[in-house]
TrEMBL record:
Coiled coil: none annotated. It comes from Comamonas guangdongensis. InterPro entries: DUF192, Saro_0823-like_sf. The lineage of its organism: Bacteria, Pseudomonadati, Pseudomonadota, Betaproteobacteria, Burkholderiales. Residues 1-37 form the signal peptide. This is DUF192 domain-containing protein. Keywords: Signal. It holds the Pfam family DUF192.
């Protein structure tokens, strides 16, 4: 840290003014950006959607494709219809880890390979920072209400269908 005590009061005052001006400019620039869901504790409800299938079951799926959309995920949602989920789409396969900070709903994450095969499932408790990771590198993670997969007998090895996986 730089010690400002050896400077004159005029140079200190100038330095603080310059920093204040820079901060104001930055805040002004940030303030012109549209507010996104999640910034104020609001759920994101208007993401692009696609239909996925798991055997005979249809899943109405919101797509979280940008970094910001993935960061917010299902945070702040108070309810979600049983046939609805969120598919997190990453640019390249990797070991994906999820937590439940600011997420009110109990969820199950299905870590999904490029061909639509569920690699592993993880039940996640609300409002925790516990980490839940894919067993191997994946590009997709599908979050559903906790129990949805189990009630339908869907487990690791099940193939999902839909546009992201090249199968309808």
């Amino acid at each position: 840290m730089k010690n400002f005590s050896s400077q004159t009061s005029d140079s200190r005052q100038y330095g603080w003014r310059a920093m204040a001006l820079a901060a104001a400019t930055l805040l002004g620039l940030l303030g012109t950006a549209p507010a996104m869901a999640g910034d104020q504790g609001q759920p994101q409800m208007n993401l692009r959607r696609t239909d996925l299938t798991a055997g005979m079951y249809r899943i109405d799926t919101q797509l979280a494709v940008t970094e910001r959309q993935r960061e917010i995920g299902l945070m702040f949602r108070k309810e979600m219809p049983q046939q609805e989920g969120m598919l997190f789409v990453f640019e390249v396969p990797g070991v994906q880890c999820f937590w439940m900070r600011n997420t009110i709903l109990p969820l199950t994450a299905a870590f999904v390979a490029d061909d639509g095969t569920i690699v592993n499932l993880a039940d996640m408790q609300p409002m925790t920072d516990d980490s839940h990771c894919s067993a191997k590198p994946v590009r997709y993670v599908l979050e559903m209400n906790q129990g949805w997969f189990a009630k339908r007998g869907i487990k690791a090895g099940t193939k999902l269908g839909g546009a992201p996986f090249g199968r309808q």
